[in-house]
Design brief:
Blueprint lengths: L1 H15 L9 E5 L3 E4 L15 E4 L4 E2 L10 H10 L5 E5 L2 H7 L22 E2 L7 H10 L5 E4 L3 E6 L2 H22 L9 H14 L25
Parallel strand pairs: 6-7
Antiparallel strand pairs: 1-2, 1-5, 2-3, 3-4, 5-8, 7-8
Helix pairs in contact: 1-5, 2-4, 3-5
């Protein structure tokens, strides 16, 4: 129950921070046998723990309210299957990152904070139809050695060891995309060298930058929610 409540809090915070609107985007978190994931086509402000869908790694699924898993369940499940370092995934349609992805462009090392996603850049996966195995394959390739990527003509995938970290990374990727697009107004954007980025990556790894739950706390549920009284 506690994990389902945390998923709802994350989904609601995702929308509250402008990373997605309406029913766009989705959130998942690892369980012992698979994952919990937000349902398809549900207003996040109306979600209850019974709406959250449990899905096993064999793709069987169950929801108390009979709802279907998010249409993007495939890449969530594939990421969790192949990345033991990932325990939570936030997928957004955030405006600046989505605008950048419409051009098939990732985010190069124009700012040292690009390294927060685990490497010298944030890749953009090629376009494929939403919910398809092809899209999942592209996402897995773009996430190799990374904790976030863009999806061409689509949005963002951000991962983490917990929901708070994944959400914080999704926020950071959107901010980097906003800054990058603003810098493009002045022309071609200068980039840091590989050596400079290596130094940043090394320093971040030593201080645990962005990986501590205390640095990326899960946002509280909005005041209007009726879930706070539920047992965990």
């Amino acid at each position: 129950m506690k994990l389902a409540i945390d998923i709802i809090a994350t989904a609601q915070a995702m929308n509250a921070r402008g990373l997605s609107t309406g029913t766009a985007g989705n959130v998942s978190a690892r369980t012992q046998s698979g994952m919990l994931i937000t349902p398809s086509g549900m207003d996040y402000t109306q979600l209850t723990p019974d709406d959250i869908v449990a899905m096993d790694f064999d793709t069987s699924w169950f929801a108390t309210n009979g709802l279907r898993p998010s249409s993007e369940w495939r890449f969530h499940l594939d990421i969790l299957r192949t990345r033991p370092d990932v325990s939570a995934i936030v997928h957004t349609h955030s405006p600046y990152a989505s605008a950048l992805s419409a051009h098939g462009r990732g985010i190069g090392p124009f700012h040292y904070m690009v390294a927060v996603a685990g490497g010298h850049d944030i890749r953009c996966a090629p376009y494929a139809t939403f919910g398809s195995q092809e899209l999942s394959n592209h996402a897995l390739a773009a996430l190799e050695g990374r904790s976030a990527c863009l999806l061409a003509h689509h949005g963002v995938i951000a991962t983490g060891p917990d929901l708070g970290s994944a959400l914080a990374l999704a926020v950071e990727v959107e901010e980097l995309a906003r800054q990058y697009l603003a810098a493009r107004v002045l022309g071609e954007v200068p980039e840091l060298t590989r050596e400079q980025m290596d130094e940043v990556i090394d320093k971040m790894s030593k201080v645990g930058y962005g990986s501590s739950p205390e640095m990326n706390p899960l946002p509280p549920l909005p005041p209007h929610t009726n879930l706070l009284h539920l047992d965990s």
